[in-house]
Amino acid sequence: MFPLLNSLRIAGISTVIILLTGIPAAYYIAKTPRVIKGVLDVILTLPLVLPPTVVGYLLLRVLGPKHAIGAWFLETFNVKLTMTWWSAIFATVVVIFPLMYRTARGAFEAFDETLAYAGRTLGLSRTYIFWRIRLPYCRQGILAGTVLAFARALGEYGATSMISGYTPGRTATISTTVYQLWRTNDDALAFRWVMVNLAISFVVLLAVNLLERKNSPSGKRRNRQSRAVTPAAGEIVRKEGD
Amino acid sequence: MSVLIDIEKKLSGYDLKVNIEGDNEVTALLGASGCGKSMTLKCIAGIEKPDRGRIIADGRVLFDSEKHINVPPEKRNVGLMFQNYALFPNMTVRQNICAGARRKNSDRNVRCSKAEMYMDYFGIRDIADRLPKYISGGQQQRTALARILVSEPDILLLDEPFSALDSHLRFATEQEVRKVIREFGRTVIMVSHDRDEVFRMADRIAVINNGIIEKYASRDEVFRSPGTVNGAILTGCKNISPIKKIDERHILALDWNLLLETAEDVGNSAYAGIRMHYVNGSAPVNSYECVVTDVIENPFSYTVMLMAEGGSEKAFGWEMEKDKWRQIRGDRVMIHIPPESVLLLR
């Protein structure tokens, strides 16, 4: 059962991290001028289109024990940033960040700015407007982005295997386990893990669909948000096919 | 509560230049769409920043480009009702109004009781727990007004307050709003392109064209003598013609080939307007026999299109009650245009 638990905790923690970083990033970048927005957008979206092995390689160049940050951590805290179960979090965060960022940004951009103006002329603070009007308005998009990111985190293989490796009972995740079992010709067990992964992904995508459908008869706004989510979903499917 | 607005802002297509004052009265900005009316309201509310000028409400400087003062909208105490009302879609009617009450009341209980009071006043207590998307346009408007009034603004700005409503709802709603703003008793600035609405609601009217105020006067003065072609069109004058000045009291209306006596000095006016319903009967001056070119039936009146004898280019309209037309119906009619009904326009 270890690979399942390990996959779930890596995906869970990564999702929380991108929730806390992706939403502010989306909020501020949605407000920046066009040129800067374009550049930042490319940088933050890059991990979505790069092969996971490239992401893994770049991460190792930074976090590896012989490289800048990795070496510093090893020296100062005597902590090795690679080859532990939580090393995979670095990989998944980088890979799923664009999903959260892009869906949240789409939601923020669809926000009717008139509502914020109305709030301000009523004397409401910007903090109040952000938490009580803007975020609830964008809730659907953010929720969909969160679930998608979680699903993608569960399926992360390339960068994870490079930075965490495969140690049964210590760093193994579902995806690395499936690869390992297939390589060692343990077809029956590999198939069982494949089924586990399929089941989880099925449930998660079902949840995304339900989230998008909920309240959808109410109008155009929801449709616009679900359209913002769909291309990202398509990209995941293609990625998992790699 | 006196309000002084004197602002300039460069916009694509034209420069906005507005200078109006208000003192506990209803001022209407009357203009065609895209003439800078809404932009003016946004500048007063603080959502847009004028390039130059100042905005002062009861001695309190809200904006002054020379002193670099630009009070943010949340601190201006200026309520703006948006054309689409901008109700918070995630909050119920009650929550929307409670949010409006935050400005003046830090105590939650006070806020709630104020909100209840306003819901009673506007008759929307039975929809208090519904979301904005599940209530009618008229109810949305009342909610929006309640939300603004509960925030106790010094100035109330209304951006096309009735344009989002179905026409059959407008009249009733207008009466309600009129009552509400009379009771509000402070300065109200509304924006509209509807002359009937403006006539019924406003004390003073500023006619705006391409960002410039062409005429700024009391309601009656603006309707009596709109001053410009644009003002005449906006106040509902449909007969407008370029003129040739004969002498200070006589003009030739070129489109209709009519020689007309005027009540005021012609000066350098280049156009004249005749209100349809002023055209009536016969008298010693300004009387003409005209050929009827067309008769248009309206629900409660006829619009008779007329041309003067002797080769005029365009017909002008003459509106009359149905009974009246049935009496005088014919191929030719006598009309009389009283000199004071000839609007001299720039």
Beta-strand percent range of chain A: under 5%
Q: Helix amount of chain B, in percent?
A: 25-40%
> What oligomeric state is this?
heterodimer
Mean pLDDT metric of chain A? 83
Give the low-pLDDT segments of chain A.
Answer: 216-242
Strands of chain B, total number:
20
Order of helices and strands of chain A: HHHHHHHHHHH
* Unreliable stretches covering 5 or more consecutive residues of chain B: none
State the distance separating the first and last CA atoms of chain A.
Answer: 26 Å
Give the total of beta strands of chain A. Answer: 0
The strand line-up of the biggest sheet of chain B is 7-8-9-3-10-11
The N- and C-terminal alpha carbons of chain B lie at a distance of 34 Å
Q: For the report, how would you describe the main beta sheet of chain B?
A: 6 strands, mixed
User: pLDDT average of chain B, as an integer?
Assistant: 90
Q: How many whole angstroms does the radius of gyration of chain A measure?
A: 20 Å
Helix content of chain A: over 70%
Q: How large a portion of the residues of chain B is in β-strands, by DSSP E?
A: 25-35%
Biggest pleated sheet of chain A? none
Order of helices and strands of chain B: EEEHEEEEHHHEHEHEEHHEEEEEEEHEE
Structural class of chain A: mainly alpha
Short description:
With 242 residues, chain A is mostly helical. Chain A contains 11 helices and no strands.
Can you tell me about this structure?
The complex is a heterodimer of chains A (242) and B (346). By secondary structure, chain A is mainly alpha-helical. Chain A has helices at residues 2-31, 34-49, 52-63, 68-77, 87-110, 113-121, 126-155, 158-164, 174-183, 187-213, 220-241. The longest helix of chain A has 30 residues, at 2-31. The model of chain B has no long low-confidence stretch (mean pLDDT 90). Chain A binds chain B through residues 112, 114-115, 117-126, 128, 132-133, 136-137, 139, 218-219, 221, and chain B through 42, 45-47, 72-80, 82, 84, 86, 88-91, 99-100, 102-104, 133, 147-148, 151.
